[in-house]
What we know:
This protein has helices spanning 33-39, 71-92, 104-115, 158-170, 188-201, and strands at 6-9, 19-22, 45-48, 52-54, 57-59, 63-65, 68-69, 98-102, 122-126, 144-150, 174-180.
Amino acid sequence: NLSFVHRFEPGTDPAQPPLLLLHGTGGDESDLLPLGRSLAPGAALLSPRGPVLENGMPRFFRRLAEGVFDEDDVRRRAGDLADFVAEARAAYGIAAPLAVGFSNGANIAAAMLLLRPESLAGAVLLRAMVPLAEPPAADLGGKPVLILSGAADPIVPEESARRLAGQLGRAGAEVEHAVLPAGHGLTQSDVARAEAWMARWR
Ligand code: MLT
């Protein structure tokens, strides 16, 4: 019995890295399966549901207000999720996954990279911001990270996404950060950008 409600789709193409799919606030474990299938056809997909409820909406950690995070909870939940990934890897026999996270899911993926770098092979962070003002020193050893921000995103300040790119880069990740003509929601250009980036890394 694994510790998170989740869906798992076994991979059919061993050349594709498994994906860890992390939904946004109010989403669930089914939301990002279509995106995962399109980014990495044939990859194993591991998709947990955020265990925190905010007015009935699942999330991956608590926040005090929009954009104001409970950093103790971020640390604890990032650890729990990294433990779940380790359990799931053993149960399903998969390699360390590449996280694909949207919004709150991107923020917990960023926290996992900084706190438990061994748990992820890299990440696609869609509409991410800084999850921890002062992260510990981490060694990301060249792990690939793509950050896609929206120029007109009312929730994520562009400066916060830039600061996150800096934190991850200083920790040794191979970071690509692009600001797309978009809001908080995902667009076709997000999918196209992420697909092109995935094709370079697999
Ligand atoms: C967060 O709480 O992680 C961010 O504000 C993004 C979101 O709305 O989920």
